[in-house]
Amino acid sequence: MQKTLLIIVLAALCLNFNANSQRRDNIIKPLSIGDTISENIWKAPLNIINELTGKKTITLNDYHNKKLIILDFWATHCVPCIKSLYRLDTLQDLFNQDVLILPVTYESSTKVKPFILKRGWKLPSVVNDSILKAYFPHIVVPHQVWIRDGKVISITSGEEATANHIQGAIDNTDIALHYKRDIAFNPTEPITKYLQETKSSLNTNSILTGYVDGLGGTGVTTNDSMRICYFLNRTLLSIYKEANQINYNRIQLDMVKADDVVNRNYDKRLLYCYQLFMSSNKTEEDFREKITNDLDDYFKLLSRFDKHIVDCYVIRQANTSTNPNLLKASDLSSDNNGLPFSQIIDVLNYTSKWSPLQPIFIAEVAQNIVFNNTNLNEIKAMQNDIESLSTWLKRHNLTIKKEARELTMLVISKNTFRQQ
């Protein structure tokens, strides 16, 4: 009884081993460049249409005597495939004695046969394929596998199949065929993830986020051939301002709620991070336009530079008499801490936040005038106190007058077309 039971157990183990062995044999291992074509591939039956002798089924082994076999995976919806097949049809005639060019598709004969006949191709095509694709998996077609002397010598896209390359492969010469790389693209991930892997270059990439805890600042830097600018946890209006390199007093809001773009209370929900990567050969105008367009598109705004008549304060020299507190830049000694008048105008026009009807200051004085013994904090304190500023300017032989001038302003409004 025990002997009988032992025999049954051993038989079961043998059957299980044979089944596992068969399953391992049936596992298809995808082939790469340098791999040998197995007997399973050579002898696998392939459904075919448009074969010269009328065959319905072939094997690759039927063409074992060819010096070169090119498997061309394609589909009827693939425009590059169709373009490539016109060329392959001609190349097959040219190298008919030494080469087999074999189109392969997963599509049915009822779909493929009229498609081929309509175009007058003489090439046959494998149809309803699942076997060859399992050995040569791919994502994008055309996908071409070059086989010589029973081995895979190259895997390419459609552009590499030229008369020169085919002749080189037949002659076994060293030909430089570009390897076709198929990447399983994940649409939920940024495409920049694949650049380093494929050694591809980045042309332009912009990123806009909400508030990011721990970040701050604004700047421009370079990295290889890229120029990068960033605005971290900034108000929307401050990004417009910095991108266009203007002061807040040159920005007008039209049909836009100030609270939506100014963020006076520093609400984190109204702070944004923006980063732009762009080729370093692009101009400043390209950068400005890209940033403002991105903001306009996302926030449904319309920003543009327009000419407007606005009130401003014009500063002039009262007369040409000398003043010990006004010097020419050329008169300054190395230890003199005089300030150029342009810098004083910049201070008067600068504010850290936007507000409506901010004063605009314009200088109509000689550009080389320098203020001697001047305190910028004192100037800043008089920005909204025109009477005190006028008194201070008079001491320096200067006048200030409110006038209407046509100035270029950055106008930000609701994009009514985008709102619809």
Mean pLDDT: 88
Radius of gyration, in Å, reads 38 Å
Largest sheet: 4 strands, mixed
Please report which band the strand proportion falls in: under 5%, 5-15%, 15-25%, 25-35%, 35-45% or over 45%.
25-35%
State the name of the first-level CATH class of the largest domain. Alpha Beta
Q: Can you give the helix content as a percent range?
A: 25-40%
Number of strands: 18
Secondary-structure content class: alpha+beta
CATH architecture of the largest domain: 3-Layer(aba) Sandwich
Number of domains: 3
**Silhouette:** rod-shaped
CATH superfamily of the largest domain: Glutaredoxin
Widest beta sheet: strand line-up = 4-3-6-7
End-to-end separation in angstroms reads 88 Å
Give structural attributes.
4-stranded mixed β-sheet, Glutaredoxin, alpha+beta, 14 helices, 420 residues, 27% strand, 4-stranded antiparallel β-sheet, Redoxin domain protein, 3 domains, antioxidant activity
Q: What's the helix and strand layout?
A:
Layout: H1 2-26, H2 39-42, E1 46-49, E2 57-58, E3 68-73, H3 79-94, E4 99-104, H4 109-119, E5 125-126, H5 131-135, E6 143-148, E7 151-156, H6 163-170, H7 195-198, E8 204-209, E9 217-223, E10 226-235, H8 236-244, E11 251-254, H9 258-261, E12 271-279, H10 284-299, E13 301-317, E14 326-328, E15 339-340, H11 341-349, E16 361-364, E17 369-371, H12 376-381, H13 386-395, E18 398-414, H14 416-419
Parallel strand pairs: 3-4, 11-18, 13-16
Antiparallel strand pairs: 1-2, 1-5, 3-6, 6-7, 8-12, 9-10, 10-12, 13-18, 14-17, 15-17
Helix pairs in contact: 8-10
